[in-house]
From TrEMBL:
UniProt entry keywords in alphabetical sequence: Amino-acid biosynthesis, Aromatic amino acid biosynthesis, ATP-binding, Cytoplasm, Kinase, Magnesium, Metal-binding, Nucleotide-binding, Transferase
Xref: SUPFAM superfamilies: P-loop containing nucleoside triphosphate hydrolases (SSF52540)
Localization in the cell: Cytoplasm
Origin superkingdom: Bacteria
Residues bound to Mg(2+): S38
Enzyme class (EC, first level): transferase
Free-text remark on how the cofactor is bound: Binds 1 Mg(2+) ion per subunit.
Single Gene Ontology MF annotation: kinase activity
Cofactor(s) listed in the protein's UniProt record: Mg(2+)
Family: Belongs to the shikimate kinase family.
The protein's annotated pathway: Metabolic intermediate biosynthesis; chorismate biosynthesis; chorismate from D-erythrose 4-phosphate and phosphoenolpyruvate: step 5/7
Protein name: Shikimate kinase
UniProt binding sites for substrate: D56, R80, G102, R159
Length: 200
């Protein structure tokens, strides 16, 4: 489906405005598992002509094993420490679009890095949507031990007040990934003033 932005003929102007607003800073997607950070992040990166990086994949590459194995072998705290180091390195590099794991923004030092060095976008989704998107997938360690609805509900209660500190908040629904990408781009295009400052 063609995007509303493309149909309106404003896409180039919108994207130019976003790139000006970013001022060379990374664009970082945060949110719970299933919100679409990697999928939408990759699509937005392509639209902005920026590299896309998935923090979880970078962590697995650095560790030489899967995130599930890191959790099992070393525990969550060791994973969070490694995650922080990887994100710090990525935020100090070239401008890019970064998708982070669901717990990254919850850790104070990692959150401070993201808020200080990037523009953060929270992809906010309700419980039913997250449950639908994560159902039947076994690569998410936090959902592998217990009732996924209860676990996700508890994560929403604990994490959403923290995610609310993101620079920009986009509400996800059951729209297609293309429509979601276009919605995110449109929101980003409205989120910077003429001097490139984030409009709160």
């Amino acid at each position: 489906m063609e995007s509303n932005i493309a149909e309106s003929g404003l896409r180039d102007d919108v994207i130019a405005n976003i790139r000006t607003g970013l001022k060379g800073r990374p664009l970082v997607f945060i949110g719970l598992m299933g919100a679409g950070k990697s999928c939408i992040g990759r699509m937005v990166a392509k639209a902005l002509d920026l590299d896309f990086v998935d923090a979880d994949r970078e962590i697995e590459e650095a560790a030489g094993c899967s995130i599930a194995d890191i959790f099992k072998l070393y525990g969550e705290e060791a994973f969070r420490e490694g995650e922080e180091r990887v994100i710090a390195r990525l935020l100090d590099g070239e401008p890019l679009v970064l998708a982070t794991g669901g717990g990254a923004f919850i850790r104070e030092k990692t959150r401070e890095l993201i808020l200080d060095k990037s523009v953060s976008v929270w992809l906010r989704a309700d419980l039913d949507l997250l449950l639908q998107r994560t159902s039947g997938r076994t690569h998410r360690p936090l959902l592998n031990n217990g009732d996924p609805r209860q676990i996700l509900g508890d994560l929403i209660e604990a994490r959403y007040p923290v995610y609310a500190g993101a620079d920009i908040i986009f509400d996800c629904d059951e729209s297609s990934k293309e429509e979601t990408r276009d919605g995110v781009i449109a929101l980003l295009g409205r989120s910077f003033d003429k001097d490139g400052n984030i409009i709160r």
